[in-house]
Amino acid sequence: MVSASQTAxxxxxxxxxxxRASESGDSMVLxxxxxxxxxxxxxxxxxxxxxxxxxxxxxxxxSSPASIAAEPANVPMSPAINAAxxxxxxxxxxxxxxxxxxxxxxxxxxxxxxxxxxxxxxEDDAFTAETIEGKFPVRNIIAKxxxxxxxxxxxxxxxxxxxxxxxxxxxxxxxxGSSTAILLExxxxxxxxxxxxxxxxxxxxxxxxxxxxxxxTDSLYGAKHVAERWQKDxxxxxxxxxxxxxxxxxxxxxVERESNSTPWLEDLVYQAATKRGYQSHFFAxxxxxxxxxxxxxxxxxxxxxxxxxxxxxxxxxxxxxxDTLDKLSPKSLQIVGDVILQTVWMLDAR
Length: 350
Prior knowledge:
With about 350 residues, the protein is of the alpha/beta class. It has nine helices and eight strands. It has helices spanning about 25-40, 85-95, 105-115, 175-190, 220-235, 235-240, 265-275, 295-300, 330-350; strands spanning about 120-130, 135-145, 145-160, 195-205, 240-245, 255-260, 280-285, 305.
């Protein structure tokens, strides 16, 4: 962990993803800050990888769960995902080992994802990223499931793993593994079924991680590229919502209310969580996170980041070789997968 005014090196010399709201390392200060957050007296401004405080991209102030409007009427329950299968996907993805851009394991994972999408409408958004460490191939993978309504809902998650930790025992079970798995399982729920709603596109983003140290220019390579492309060709205007899943396998699941996200869409996510009976796992804290949704927010796409940024006590497992399968739970995958699908069903009814 690092504070807003300090940096802390990981085993690979990379700066940690997370900033504390408190600038003191004193445990009493942190306990007091946590108590104030629970009372609603403060909110953290926390970036996913950048250690320097920045203003949220979205300037609107979202409503608290208590003030959220009633859900759309007559919305049916969405199907429940198969959590055991999603966990198996996570195990298989993690078994490849580290999967940074440009690596042989990354290429194997690309082939694994495409093989699981066989028979679906799949498109590539492939390009060469110019980075501080050189040129890297980046490949966003998009699986499209058509609907009857005019418009698109995008469900996104990154599949690459941390580049600076590529030569350690790091496998990114949660950070990279869980997001890949949940998208593959959601594909199973959509495949072969007529959608009486918006089209759903599953976007497997690549190059989310920094190759050296997170910054505005060293991060989110794939998301920036596809967001710019969709803005130029008019696709962005057709997207009704983007739902991003990241680090959602943590057994101690606490999904943040993310203040760079679109407030009304965050409200809808909470309504979906409440409908499924999972609201206790959502929005206990409000944090600003820099993640793959940011380029889409800037392009005018309503976006919500479903992320549990605090991974282990003091965030000790994040960007660490300790990000392993034993820290994850099928129940957490169930919760997030079900809430994402319920949010899609609610969007269909709007």
